[in-house]
Amino acid sequence: MRLLWVGLLLGIGTLVHAAVPEPVGELLRKNGIPAENVSVYVQRVDQPSPLVDHQSDRPMKTASTMKLLSTYAGLELLGPAYRWRTEVYHDGRLENGVLHGNLIIQGRGDPYLLAADMRAMLEDLQLAGVEDIRGDIVLDTRYFARRYHDAAEFDDKPHAPYNAVPNAFAVNIKSTSFHFLVEGGKLNIEADPELPEIHIHNQLNLVRGDCGDWKSRLQFVVEPLGDEVAVTFKGDYPSACRDKTLELNVLEDGPYAYGLFRSNWLSLGGKLRGGWRYGALPEDAQLLVAHDSQPLSEIIRTINKYSNNLMVRQLFLTMAAERVASPATEADGVHVVKAWLASKGLHFPELILENGSGLSRDEQITARHMAAFLLAAYASPVMPEYLSALPIPSVDGTMANRLRNSQARGSAHLKTGTINGVSALAGYVHDRRGRRWVAVIMVNDPKASASRAAQDALIDWVYQQP
Description:
Number of domains: 3
Largest sheet: 5 strands, antiparallel
CATH class of the largest domain: Alpha Beta
Structural class: alpha+beta
Shape: globular
Low-confidence stretches: 1-16
Distance between the termini: 25 Å
Number of strands: 22
Strand content: 25-35%
CATH superfamily of the largest domain: DD-peptidase/beta-lactamase superfamily
CATH topology of the largest domain: Beta-lactamase
């Protein structure tokens, strides 16, 4: 009888906690978010059933929490040590430092080929004996399929870095930093990298007053000029802001890559006679140098900790190229990820993938199934690399300023996700007794952005479990 009574008490406890925890529900109500627009799932990694299960079978838009699926798939399909290789060839003859012919760069999707890496490649090129390039710089980007894409279609912000579209030779995350510098009562604007293809027109007024939301007080106009671009800044800039930086994607892929190449090559003392163009690597081309990226285990740290859309889309297409065929399409990536899930016995009929980043109005999954692949990842050999790539509350990445007053700070690995009408948080919580939990909360509501406190309350509640 005593054992039966204990069992009944445990069953009642499970039923009580099956709903949204009261601290979470209270904050949702306070911010005007109906419970029916929220999905929550919490399960201990060593238990067969959830502690919290609220609308977990409802398909929900994920925003950037979809990166959790793409990066897990990447680790298992490609391996933590996978590296992207960029190779440089020539199709002519090299005599006494002079290359009589074209220099061909074959990109294979490196998500994190920075300006410093470009310079290192060119230093290696000089060590290989090249000093004077008499032909063109040819960019072979056929590893990914080319498709015309309107970068403004998501939110009408085509120059926002998060809207940058993939390219097999995407350099420096395709971003230009515009530095606003106040000195001697004057405002100067400088571009980094500083390329002659980027023309800055400064029409900003330097004004008094608090810095505040300085970005909302300025406007910019980007005007393409063939392979160059004019960027005009208008509006007001408060002098109290001192030095600020605005990241924009303003140059097309080819001109940007070529501009970085030429700028670094000339600064290294090299000579360049031709221009640039897209083209295919000839069969008889000769390899000069190769550059390997950081390992995937490091790449996904940048992807997930800072929620980089372009980098995860490059990964998504790389999985497609490696597992299906090249030139790779996003549809190939969808096929690869779904086939991989099925091979693990994970069948998610409601799953909609588009580009693997969550930068989509269509990508969706249920909270139950997001928790299912998080549980599978925890049991996977790649678990250490996977967890270490996720933001830690009040420590780093997109969670650096979250849960600062909670005992759970520093005790979770969580991925955020936010677009208009969608806010989500998912990952792992290490509770006060040393147990690990999977926690997922997704909000699809016009007031979703107001759910952050409720999300944090869920993590705190999980951490405090007796």
